[in-house]
Amino acid sequence: MMYQEGRFRYRSVAEGTQVLELPFKGDDITMVLILPKPEKSLAKVEQELTAEVLEEWLDSLTETLLTVHMPHFRIEDSFSVKEMLQDMGLLDLFSPDKSKLPGIVAGGRDDLYVSDAYHKAFLEVNEEGSEAAASTVGVIAGRSLNPNRVTFKASRPFLVLIREAALNTIIFMGRVANPCVN
Question: What positions does the domain Serpin occupy (predicted)?
């Protein structure tokens, strides 16, 4: 578990669900952690979470003196985007008969086409900071607990979002289902 003390945007919402916003990269990119109360499943929070609910929660965050305990975690996923690209109109690119990709290889071959396209994303948080693509942020370590501070302890399943604050856009979203496993 990593440990950090400081003033962060925080709120206890919806019957005890904790929402915490931490700086991620510069002033514009933040990491939002959504931690259900112990009696509430992460699946239930995910089911209830809509764009409107999330906006309401984020708008209600206030700067609070906090003690944050957070596990190391890595979220990684990859998937085919071929169907999405075809739905956007990129049909010929994937057709062996219609694709036109000249100039990619020497010799003037014109029989190239894209057979599939994949997207891969990852987020890793550890003592050295956070990494998502090429973004990093430092984590401050402390030595003792202050009893007057609110505690945010992510020792049970939680959601993590990377958010561009100025545009209020979620650029990454994932879940840490078992924070006790390295």
Answer: 1-179
